[in-house]
Amino acid sequence: MFLGLDLGTSGLRALLVRVDGSVVGSAEATYPVSHPQSGWSEQNPADWVTACESVVAKLRAAHPQDWPDLSGIAVAGQMHGATLLDAKDDVLRPCILWNDTRSFAEATELDGQPGMREISGNIVFPGFTAPKLVWLARHEPKIFERVAKVLLPKDYLTFWLTGEHVSEMSDAAGTAWLDVEKRAWSPELLDASGMRMDQMPRLVEGSALAGRLRASLAQDWGISQPVAVAGGGGDNAVAACGVGALTEGDGFVSLGTSGVLLAAKDSFAPMPETAVHTFCHAIPETWYQMGVILAATDSLNWLARNLGQDAAALSKALGDRIDGPGKMRFLPYLSGERTPHNDSSIRGALLNLDIAHGPADLTQAVMEGVAFALRDNLEALKSTGTKLDRVLAIGGGAQSPYWVELCATLLDLPIDLPAKGEFGAAMGAARLAQCAATGAAPKDVMSAPEVARTVPPRPELQPAYEEAYQAFRATYPALKDLP
């Protein structure tokens, strides 16, 4: 048995999987996010531990015959968060999360440092880990002086499982401290942000052994054999493992809280100025590129909350087929934007509102705005030389036939919809655990899911959507110039 843990922003999902890839069971637990000031987003690492204990208890109770055979664990997780430990391994303050924008000034300063983009392969975004520590040094210096280790969120859970300070390449690539080509901590990047090598966890590949489950935990959990704990990975890299996106040309589009267009890469080929992320994959000698929009289904959830309606009901009201763009235009920058704008201060907008517009028109505008932003991501990926022939759709938004056909038409790519089953980050984590526990090669374990159906673009509607996209694209600079 292999346990995959997906440490998300709002909850932990656990998946218990057999060696043949079949799912035994799943469990979930939630935890809160704190916003003590505007633009701040924090979480208590103790809540992650409580959630892990909860999902393990649920799986043990539900599957008493299978659970004792557990032999491998891996954690996938939200990236970029700064979990700070002192010399006694006590947490110094709440974790500063990926969607926290307080360090925008520090990110700009770091991004201008010589060699920063060249070594890290990326723009330094405010959500990355390095600018958070520069902010901490300036605003909470007494805490900064006590920092002995900086762990990413999923690495803190791995530390609790194993007692080891360890990270891996895919998550570390989002700190702005990693030499992404060499897959090693960079002394130059650490020095630029006032950090030391001894404050970093050791690095392993995501599919490699990070440590063993602590004996006391194994006893508490009713496990008698040694349990391997893998390096794990950042959520999108591990989701790529879950859908078998491992080699050049493989990719997926994720319509989740944020939106992601990801392409696996066989080599390191960054172009930071496009705001495309170039990160290490969770498997050896592989990288990936992705464009990220900060509010995908979050945009629809925002609309649903303000209309007092259910997001799924709003989506269903549009039907299953697109029939051309609406006149209303939505800019989905509710929390700023990453690709291609790298703009933490921009905010969303609704344009061309008419007195006759109702909930369906608003829903269509929101879905189109998200799809237009994903098209921006595709154009950014293309500018780096990345090519995609088709993508797999994952995430909650992929349950909307309308949204998927809209994305297929705007991206001009066939979009595959997987057959029902588990194929996200929790499954990818279970596969990494299997590799670490058994020595299996990733490509022998991480197969693509069965495709239930393929949604093709609608060529007869593409000219109209192309015109609407160009209008959307021209709106960002005008919006940015508004006081």
From TrEMBL:
The record's active-site residues are 235
Q: Where is this site: Important for activity?
A: 6
Any Pfam family: FGGY_N
Q: Any idea which GO molecular function terms this record carries?
A: ATP binding; D-xylulokinase activity
Carbohydrate kinase FGGY C-terminal domain sequence ranges: 252-436
Q: Where is the Carbohydrate kinase FGGY N-terminal domain?
A: 1-242
Q: Which InterPro entries match?
A: ATPase_NBD (IPR043129), Carb_kinase_FGGY (IPR000577), Carb_kinase_FGGY_CS (IPR018483), FGGY_C (IPR018485), FGGY_Carb_Kinase (IPR050406), FGGY_N (IPR018484), Xylulokinase (IPR006000)
- As recorded in UniProt, coiled-coil segments are none
Q: Which residues bind substrate?
A: 79-80
Q: Which residues form the signal peptide?
A: none
The alphabetized list of GO BP terms reads: D-xylose metabolic process; xylulose catabolic process
EC numbers, comma separated: 2.7.1.17
Q: Which Gene3D superfamilies match?
A: 3.30.420.40
Quickly give the catalysed reaction.
D-xylulose + ATP = D-xylulose 5-phosphate + ADP + H(+)
Record keywords, A-Z:
ATP-binding, Carbohydrate metabolism, Kinase, Nucleotide-binding, Transferase, Xylose metabolism
Q: Which family does it belong to?
A: Belongs to the FGGY kinase family.
- What role is this protein assigned? Catalyzes the phosphorylation of D-xylulose to D-xylulose 5-phosphate.
What NCBIfam families does the record point to? XylB
Q: Any idea what this protein is called?
A: Xylulose kinase
Q: Which organism is it from?
A: Primorskyibacter sedentarius
